[in-house]
């Protein structure tokens, strides 16, 4: 005999939609009757096996019309994944209309979307007969397109709100139709809607309708679920359990779990009626994380259920939870594309760093302040196999030793006065499977260095006040602007720690040694600040010749200063440093002096021609462009210098042999090097 379901909603259209949905899911096993408040169809006594009511308010209105022995279900609703995905595509922080039949229904839909997790946008409820329609260009509506204001340019229809998994389960259980839940069409429906798993733990303690509800709710979960009765016979075994254990459902249902999976301690749980949490077992050579709970009702034991998953999957989930719990956004934002520069020096460092990223060894980044040590550390992390995990950075100079120790290693509750209740996760634990960046490592106290060394060597950490060892898999990238070798000699840095960190040394180039990148960086910073101004030739020269003790950080400060002047053209008197204190660009190292003397002996009386070519290339350098033989020859003709393209070619080859220029292949032209710039005045 068919079961009767009466559906009562505010809108007749919604009632018809729910009736159609139920018919599609339960087919010939049910008949439906539609009632709604908007057409006054609720009259007389409603007699049905189940009365499905949209809201509590509607129930209070119609309860006197419902036969006393009817089963009542207040609907739990959701939306289809396709509609929810459309909402998630809306840019963060956007203000959006939510259009529905009434203010109450609009607010309910907004609340539903927020509960499902799409809380990145601001919704404004809009409904028919609203006095003032907000001026918003995007509207979201649950199938009520007709009520969307005409001025809206983009309409997102997420479809009617639909019955959630909990409502379908309740209907099936109350009508003894739970066997239908296993049918493909209902399983496909469950997969098509947005829902959550909050009912799983609650279900573990419910014994009435245990077999049906357990199967309904848990079959589609990613975790493996195994249910056994008091004798240890398996009565539930979902698809995920098949994947984890490796045994097919038909080969395990009805059999004793101890015979097939002796590694799972069901007997212990059934004997003691106590849960086993977070136990690691090995099955078929794979580490499995296991939780087993007794199933009881009114203190009567009915069986036990296990939640299992591969330990590697559990670790990935744990990292997501840790990052949400900490809420500090330990993410590497930068990649190698964010490191600006076209100089040979910076490209060489980037190439070395990219190769280091593929390794698992510790890296020690050396560089003056402002050279971008953390920028490189983040880029290395994002190019490594650990990029999906946390990038955790800590400045060793910013915290006193005691506080830094608790930050790195964490602590247990009551470890010291003021310790947080429940203890605290250390940064090593947080960075598990990821990268820990130790900035200003040269400032770390010797006592803490010893403990850090042990963690790096043993790959395990113990919290302050704790008595258990926690295994960690962390890659260390350390950075310093100090000479650690000298600190080792002075007894201020442990030699063994130095060698542990300095497996892969990376030396960053100061800005003064890659001057061709300076004006590129100026343009990049101007774009970030959304400012437009032009540097005069004298200012550009001053920037190129400045010593830049603070490197890129100092450069950024100066550019920000110039941006706030609100001037379109920047002259020498506008710059925030004294050009008279420009570093001596022409100071030569001993080997450079020898090279210039050798070169002058080589070119003899033709030195003027070489100087002419160098100066032409220097002009191109200041204009940030390569210069070819033809343009040099044309310039020579204008200035009355007799140089053929063939002779210019020979001069360029000679200059390249002495590292004064770089000749690009094809039509790339030639560029003067820093040594070439230095050499011009010394060649006279």
UniProtKB/TrEMBL annotation:
Keyword Electron transport attached: no
The record ties this protein, via PROSITE patterns, to: PAS (PS50112), SIGMA54_INTERACT_1 (PS00675), SIGMA54_INTERACT_4 (PS50045)
One Pfam family recorded for the sequence: PAS
UniProt keyword Isomerase present: no
Keyword tags: ATP-binding, Nucleotide-binding
Domain Sigma-54 factor interaction, by residue range, is: 339-564
Q: Which PANTHER family match?
A: C4-DICARBOXYLATE TRANSPORT TRANSCRIPTIONAL REGULATORY PROTEIN DCTD (PTHR32071:SF57), TRANSCRIPTIONAL REGULATORY PROTEIN (PTHR32071)
What is the recorded name of this protein? Sigma 54-interacting transcriptional regulator
Name the species this protein comes from: Clostridium brassicae
Q: What is the lineage of its organism?
A: Bacteria, Bacillati, Bacillota, Clostridia, Eubacteriales
